[in-house]
Amino acid sequence: MTDQHAELDAALERVVETARAHLAAIRGAEGRIDDDAVWQAYVELNNASFDYDERLLDAFGEVTPWDVEAIDPEEADERFGVGLGGVDGAEPGDPHPQVVSVRQRRDYRVPSVAALLRVAQAARRSALPEDEESVEVESVGEAVLELLQGGDGSLAALDIPELEPLDGVVMVSEVGTPLDLESFDDEDSLGPFTPAVDDRLVGRLDEHPYLSLDGDVDEEIETR
């Protein structure tokens, strides 16, 4: 066996090893997005595949079905913002940490209270076991809260025909202290949303709903 063939065999073994390491990293990440270990394993698998492809071409004039290019790990980390940690991959400490606060309000018109209550009651009933009886939804506020809870708190849960969106606003501020929910009573509707003296408003997005040509409700966003 020539040295070139031995190097080719070693390159192929490296592809197998890095492929297994990549799979192990994915399993270990358990669905986490932008996991550093997965990214590093991906780069190693990519580069091992590229090296094997190049050696196969040099030795036999053949190629693999893998259309890959070599990745510089340091340049890729800088571009995608991963793997830039300090010792043991830990993120470097920022001497000037900041907190960003996003406050949002959107109002809705209720064309039919009865229709909204029916939709909310159906959502509540579907979230309960079959043998458990649901309590009636009694108000529009309770109905909207039920829909939000069923939609994991996202306002997308309120994009239904039973609610007509009115104007809304989103404000982004840089704040000195993060929100501490324990410092406010459950009935306090102002405290969690009241800016502190040292908060800095970065900008405001005004939302104005309008009807599109196909009759759907779209949103026009104005930046201030």
Helices and strands in order:
Blueprint: H1 3-29, H2 36-60, H3 73-80, E1 99-109, H4 113-126, H5 140-150, E2 164-175, E3 200-211, E4 217-223
Antiparallel strand pairs: 1-2, 2-3, 3-4
Characterise the protein shown here.
The structure is a single chain. By secondary structure, the protein is an alpha+beta fold. The chain folds into two domains: 3-89, no CATH class; 99-223, no CATH class. 38% of the residues lie in helices and 19% in strands. It contains five helices and four strands. Strands 1-2-3-4 form a four-stranded antiparallel beta sheet, with no helix packed on it. Helix 1 (3-29) runs antiparallel to helix 2 and helix 4 (113-126) runs parallel beside helix 5 (140-150). It starts with a helix and ends with a strand. The model is unreliable at 83-90 (pLDDT under 50).
What are the low-pLDDT stretches, counting only 5+ consecutive residues below 50? 83-90
Distance between the termini: 71 Å
Radius of gyration: 28 Å
Strands in their spatial order, largest beta sheet? 1-2-3-4
Q: In total, how many beta strands?
A: 4
Q: How many structural domains does the protein architecture include?
A: 2
* Total of helices: 5
- From the spread of the alpha carbons, the general shape counts as elongated
